[in-house]
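Tokens in:
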């Protein structure tokens, strides 16, 4: 196949909007867009191993872009969006969770998050909670640690978790989830 193509390594948490943008781009320009999803750290690690494996790297956190630039893997960066970590619950909030204090106080809750060593939302959450001295107690309350934010959101959406720390943009993609 000789059709022009763009290979995109994309943070899993923004899969749906990126797929839509890729579809529109393909139709407008006749360029095939090949999308690979994963945690921001995992994708950056892949670029370290094989720098030409992607033409475009879309991370979920600026720190990964900075890491990639320091390592000489990225030529330029363009901010696309701002993502904010949020506590998400099932629609209707059946456990009455209103904030971090609820997660720290109730050892019956099944809380989930993305692995801070693999996914941007996990890294951002850890940094925020370390700054406030709450990372240790919060980490003890995590029942499920997943490789990507989408994995955690899916667990929450099907009801196997009571809460999850995910991106606000990821939560907006699920009818079964509210912030």
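Residues out:
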């Amino acid at each position: 196949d000789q059709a022009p193509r763009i290979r995109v390594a994309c943070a899993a948490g923004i899969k749906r909007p990126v797929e839509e943008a890729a579809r529109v781009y393909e139709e407008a320009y006749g360029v095939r867009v090949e999308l690979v999803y994963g945690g921001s750290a995992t994708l950056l690690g892949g670029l370290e191993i094989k720098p030409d494996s992607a033409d475009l790297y879309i991370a979920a956190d600026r720190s990964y872009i900075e890491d990639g630039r320091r390592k000489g893997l990225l030529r330029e960066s363009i901010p696309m969006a701002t993502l904010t970590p949020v506590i998400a619950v099932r629609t209707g909030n059946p456990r009455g969770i209103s904030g971090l204090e609820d997660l720290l106080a109730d050892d019956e809750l099944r809380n989930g998050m993305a692995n801070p060593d693999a996914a941007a939302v996990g890294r951002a959450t850890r940094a925020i909670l370390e700054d406030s001295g709450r990372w240790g107690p919060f980490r003890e309350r995590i029942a499920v640690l997943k490789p990507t934010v989408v994995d955690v959101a899916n667990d929450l959406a099907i009801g196997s978790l009571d809460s999850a720390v995910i991106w606000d943009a990821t939560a907006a993609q699920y009818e079964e989830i509210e912030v």
